Amino acid sequence: MSRIGKRPVAIPAGVTANIDGAEVSVKGPKGTLTMPKDPLVTYELTDNGISVQPINQTKRARSFWGMQRTMVQNLVDGVTQGFSKKLLISGVGYRASASGRKLKLQLGFSHDVDIDVPEGLEVKTPDQTTVEISGIDKQKVGQLAAEIRRWRKPEPYKGKGIKYDGEYIFRKEGKKK
C-alpha cells in the first residue's frame, strides 16, 4: 500500500483541475500544466481533490501509484507557487550573466558558454556567482539546473565549479609534502 498514493491531492482555491481523455490538466494563477495519464492508474476528481488509485493490484501498477500522485501534486504546486533552483558558482574568474533568453557563463574555458533558456522558465543572476532558475514545471526547472551544472561540476580539492545551493561537496585533503 502506498502511503503517498492513498491521500488525495488537495486543490486550493483559484485552481481548476480537469481529467479528460489521455491527460490531466491543472489551471491556476501562474498558468496551465498538463500531464499524460498513465494506463496503470485511475484518476478521479472528487470533492477533496484528485484521487489516484492503481487499476489493479499488480506490482507494476502499485509502483506507479505513488509516483503518479506526486506528479499530480507537482502540477498543482507549480500553478500556485512555482518552483525554483539556485546555483552557486565558485572559482577565480567564474561568473554568469543573464540577458533576455540567454545565460552567458564564463567557466575558465577558452570560450564563453551560452545557454538558451527554454520557454516557460526565467533565469536571474542577482550577482555574478549566483544563478536563480524559476518556473511552473518542476521537471524543466531541474533539467535546466542540471544542464548548467554539467558544464563545471564541483571538484573535490578546492570546491571550484557550479553547485546547488545547500549541496555539500566532500573535500579531499590533497598532496602532503
Summarize the entry for a quick read.
The chain is of the alpha+beta class. The protein is built from 3 helices and 12 strands, in the order H-E-E-E-E-E-H-E-E-E-E-E-E-H-E.
What would your notes on this structure say?
With 177 residues, this protein is α+β, with helices and mostly antiparallel strands. Helix content is 22%, strand content 36%. It has a 4-stranded antiparallel β-sheet, with helices on one face. Strands 1-2-3 form a 3-stranded antiparallel β-sheet, covered by helices on one side. A 3-stranded antiparallel β-sheet has the order 7-8-9, with no helix packed on it. Strand 2 and strand 3 (31-36) form a beta hairpin. It is elongated, with a radius of gyration of 21 Å.
Attribute tags:
single chain, 177 residues, alpha+beta, three-stranded antiparallel β-sheet, elongated
Largest sheet: 4 strands, antiparallel
Give the percentage of residues in beta strands: 35-45%
Total strands: the figure is 12
Question: Which word captures the global form?
Answer: elongated
What is the first-to-last residue Cα distance? 58 Å
Mean pLDDT: 93
Strand order of the largest sheet: 10-11-6-12
**N to C succession of SSEs:** HEEEEEHEEEEEEHE
Q: How many helical elements?
A: 3
Low-confidence stretches: none
Q: Helix share of residues? A: 10-25%
Structural class: alpha+beta
Rg over alpha carbons: 21 Å
